[in-house]
Amino acid sequence: MAVPGKVSMTRFGFVAALAAAALLAAPPGNAASQALIDAAKREGSVTWYTTLLVDEASGPLAAAFEKKYPGIHVDVIRKDGSEHLRNIMAEAKAGQMKADVFDGTTTAAFLMKEGIAAPYVADSAKDIPARYKDARGYWTAQVLYFQTLGYNADLVPERDSPKTYQDLLNPKWKGKLAWSVEEQLTGGLGFIVNVLDTMGDAKGTEYLGALANQDIARIRTGINGVTRALAAKQYAIGVAIDNHHTVIANEKGGNVRWVAIAPVLGLSNNIGLIRNAPHPNAAKLLIDFNLSEDGQTVLKNGNHIPASERIEAADPSLKRGFAVNYISPEKGVENTEKGLAVYKRVFGNP
After folding, report:
1. What is the rounded CA–CA span in Å between residue 120 and residue 290?
2. Domains of the chain with CATH codes
């Protein structure tokens, strides 16, 4: 994962050719109107506050966008969702908005509440299933996340890997489990929210109390940090990982596997438009591109799970064949406070 902060697009010269090739190989995308393209070119740039991995997703997307629309520069700023949210709120309060486009798991819900998000229904959003988008256009999923159990196959034979929630309580796993402890749904908090939502408060809290006795290690480098720790054999099992991260880790020499313990927590990375964006037309064009067949193909080639029904994941098993409890941005915000209270009460402060 890249170091958070402003990212110069010069880093992505090596991906531009790959992104362009992906566009040529993809079916024709949804064409933006010429009027929007012309207005975006007059603006000349767009600033995108993203949580997507730079090397595998946001960088190649920006490179492909610039290839398709010469003269429009994409300023990619990659940070965690909570940091982006704080910055956007501060910019809005100061009346000095820098961001044009945002994304994240629950960011849209917070910005909608504060009146900072603006509705925009991109033409290309028609290929995104209704459950993965706001009908008014305040947010649309560009990537799907499925949080599963993960394990290092060099340390844990497949036959011994946990297959159920109860399997995680086996004493042999004590001190060998890890999860991310950020106060956001991508990680341990999401696992807790999913348990409470599917088991109910009473049974879910009882189960989590038993899980707390397993001495779960706390990782503070995000949910992808858990997968990287598994790949490095620092821990045997990741309680909650994004299943597509195993593909990325294994291409770099890891040996990480994932298990869908039903129901899997389903989340999405949702893109949206900032109200009073400095470059509103370029922002709309970028949103339209990311959701189009062209953009979704770039994400597929970066081993991410496209939200579009027209573009399958490179490995279809990452996206289909297991039960999912999908939590929207609004529901995620509602459940986060309760989940965090249970987290602190049962496991201690993150």
Report:
1. 13
2. 5-144+267-318 (3.40.190.10), 146-265+321-347 (3.40.190.10)
